[in-house]
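Quick entry between incubations.
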Amino acid sequence: MHTEVLAAPKRAAAPVTPTIGELEPIGVPSVHLSAGFWGDRQKLNAEAIIPHAVEWVDRLGWTANLAAARSGQPYTHRGREFADSEIYKLIEAMSWEVARGSTALEPVLDRFITLVEGAQDPDGYVQTLFGRPWQRPRYSDFKWGHELYCFGHLMQAAVAHHRATGSDRLLKVAIRLADHVCVMFGPDGLNQVCGHAEVELGLVELHRITGEQKYLDQAALFIERRGEGTLPLFEFGRAFWQDDMRVRDADVLRGHAVRALYLAAGAVDVAVESGDTELLDALELQWRNTVAKRTYITGGMGSHHMDEAFGEDFVLPPDRSYCETCAGVASIMFSWRLLLATGKVEYADLIERTLYNVVATSPAADGRSFFYANVLHQRVEHVPPPLNEDGVVIRGGASGRQPWFEVSCCPPNVARTLASIGCYIATHSASSLQIHQFASARITVDGWDVEMQTDYPADGRVTILVHSAPDGAGSLEFRVPSWAGTAVLSDRAGQRAVLPGYASAPVRDGDRLTIEFPLEVRVSYPDDRIDAVRDTVAFERGPEVYALESIDLPENGSIDDVRVYADSGRYDGTTVRVRVGQVGRERDRPWPFAAESVHIGAAAAEVPLVRYHEWAERGPSTMRVFLPALH
Amino acid sequence: MHTEVLAAPKRAAAPVTPTIGELEPIGVPSVHLSAGFWGDRQKLNAEAIIPHAVEWVDRLGWTANLAAARSGQPYTHRGREFADSEIYKLIEAMSWEVARGSTALEPVLDRFITLVEGAQDPDGYVQTLFGRPWQRPRYSDFKWGHELYCFGHLMQAAVAHHRATGSDRLLKVAIRLADHVCVMFGPDGLNQVCGHAEVELGLVELHRITGEQKYLDQAALFIERRGEGTLPLFEFGRAFWQDDMRVRDADVLRGHAVRALYLAAGAVDVAVESGDTELLDALELQWRNTVAKRTYITGGMGSHHMDEAFGEDFVLPPDRSYCETCAGVASIMFSWRLLLATGKVEYADLIERTLYNVVATSPAADGRSFFYANVLHQRVEHVPPPLNEDGVVIRGGASGRQPWFEVSCCPPNVARTLASIGCYIATHSASSLQIHQFASARITVDGWDVEMQTDYPADGRVTILVHSAPDGAGSLEFRVPSWAGTAVLSDRAGQRAVLPGYASAPVRDGDRLTIEFPLEVRVSYPDDRIDAVRDTVAFERGPEVYALESIDLPENGSIDDVRVYADSGRYDGTTVRVRVGQVGRERDRPWPFAAESVHIGAAAAEVPLVRYHEWAERGPSTMRVFLPALH
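Done. Structure below.
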């Protein structure tokens, strides 16, 4: 039985459109970014990142998998179990580009959609690695098979494509697939979950676009099943795939970071659509505890290289920080859904921190190489990446950004995030417009026509021109970040200080607001329970975290030998500068545990820091975010 | 062609008997430990650890594998690829027990030998997991198959058994096996190495016992082949199995710690027997750099839980320290071979540190549970271990000692080390006897009859009675540990101070020496490049490292909140005590990176520390070796 696209209520052309919540998302076509921090990156995404990714998935034969699947002839599958999902994420990214009027990517988008249409089995299943006579059977490997994971990405891509273009080509594929999933995994079906959460997100969004209740029910069933131990025992423990306890019983995120965060995001979707306040409360608690004890200053999540997982509370070593780019994207997805549901400012604060310090960090300035893992302490200039037999870097852990990865989830995640980044900028509700992120952009929705102009985060001034408000007047709210102390708002009523949280101003057609955010250099002291960075400080300015790169030290100094004067940070118009002293130490001691501590040399110098998201752009280097401080 | 046991020169009944070197080992039967630190543990080993291990390998069916292999009937192999090697290590342990006159273990030893004899194929191959018609083929998996690894342990067991009992039952098995290895992997054979080094050690010892040159040549060939990239590419990189560069080109140990250390030990054996000074120099350099930058204060090696591997220089996080027990044993094997070759005191110093803080730590006081990983900072009281389908803990990472492991290499390694620990106490050369480790023991070799009496390390006094010296007079040398500052020697010539290194005294029949080692509490400051323990101190006394266990804090304090007064350590006759203050902190901060650092509360208390090797014996607890220091 196939589900038709029901006449569902009109929703924004956005990735996430909850039926109920505090805030209503604004569609991708309704936010046009102009030149500026995010506008430039969105343009880079369209012109470089997406084409680069398309080249790679073609070159490595992952698109050919889909063509081969259609042919019915035996073929050798290329790439990993989740290769299909990278195609889907690129479809999603390109769809958002097309939604904003781009035509350049339409031919590729069409080619990709055609490939996916052709690869679907009559019963709705679509995965190029399993199920054919010469292949492993369908659903024979829930640990690593990533089948449901791929399905979820297909569903997200289909939603994007339909909302962007009005076409239901891919939506039909997704509906047939979702029907198949409901049959196979419903209450009378296989009592299983996927080793990698994701399908929950896709099912709920399909529910939102079709109104089909069973998709929501299936997502809820997957959420409830998690923690029942249906996945096999595994060396890294059940927490790796969050199968150690029920989602509603957990108080913090555990295990593989991307899995944990996709699961949490999908659980928010389920909770919101189901009115499940117990579940939503649990997820908010998990967010709070994870941010308080298991998150890096960059917003990055995931301390362990071993299993790309969260560590215990306060285990946040900067040199072994994994902070997978995908985990940053997933964190934003989780926080965004909580923001839409509750309107609480801390969610938008974390989204800002993660956008500027994980998402912006991953791609190189030319959009043709990426960080997979985003460390906060690079000890060694050159760490060669492990390569597979095709000479492709396998995954994160090397120094420097890489052009692609065998496990290539990160670049397409960057691509779809940048393509839809306008959605994170604002929401609306009743006669209010909420500005969550600052960027040069024009926002037109529901009677609002608002233009934001800013050089944020280099400059703290944000100007908002209210070309029109609904029925001539409304309330404009904007976030004052938690780091901002106080900001200054100038509007028709005059000038006043505004504190962290959401500030609001009544506005009328033609009004002009100016906000000044304080951009003094801030010194951040880590909680002393984070042993790995005891007695160090980090420097921030606005939303941007800064770092010291060895390239900027005088006379080939080593970043290991630097001690910073904690109060010495100043902005020179371009970057933050600090004063540092050099440690005098006995070289080549035979044993590193001694009767006395080291002495600090007398010489001090002022050195520039670099914006963390711009590090490793000037050649091989070592780097530290947290700098040992002088008392 | 089978090699006979040639009339090789008589060598000590010890695990390692180099043909050439500075120092000559003393056989296991020649050193009798009496009650005291090591005597007690050797007794525990014979009465509890070995029988416990035998129970487990029987219960889990690993001995049954050998019986089934003999039968010729299809069987399901139990345990991991290296299950056979645990039998061999227990044979080795029991052989050393029998060498010292024990009869209690003879029946089991005989049973095990019979099983191994029965499991050998006609061409000499013996491995219960591969090669039979229903099994994977021989030599089809050099990455994880552990075939050559098992062979090496068989060879070490055979050497031990022959030297202990004079029987050549197992030696014949080993010789047939070694001949097979030389055919299969010789210059005209498979150009391969084992993913896990070990066979090199076994082959050289077989060479030493038989005089057969081709065994040495084969070991040397395996050493030279390492680094040629014959092992497949692997996600953790070639360094994981030390296949990234030639042994003689490396300057530090890298990759999986146990593999790296077994390889290094085997390479020392090859270098010594071959007169390869370039190789020996390279190994000494690797030892120096590893100890200076990649070794924990306990002597533990291996920072990464991910791959049980070395980290980069100074990456030594105490909470994620792996310090696998096997790596401690392997480190001792490496250092011991370097000591025999060169006589340099630093090797014996590290052996002492590792014996008291890794080997002594692993087994529980009752000998029936073990640490696999030996962390220096236990953050959470209870970390449930990952279990396999049989309910057996898979490997390290849980809190607390465990009765057994699916990857059970550690307990048998503890067993064979304790059974032969007498060998590490002394060596001889010409008319000198060298005392490397202090224990109550009687040493009789080559005209020497020396009795050492001591309560070391609780007490610093060591008394040595020279019942007889060769031809009535000789030189007695003893190590003054590097931590000792100065010790005081009293002999027939009077009293004098002796400095770290080897001190010597001329002795005659009937002489009595007394050495007093200073056992003041020492404060150790870690090198500041070890970020994870910046601004902390550790406390040591003699060779023992101390730790703070939560059980000893007043009023349910948390070890996270404690700051120690660095100069406050004192010994109260039982343990070290220190004064600590409590951190006052704002509980439940939403974000752990703040504008100010924490304040220290005023209350101070004196608390006892625990010997690190005795921690986790009083119930669930948290623990730190490195304590944040108050300025």
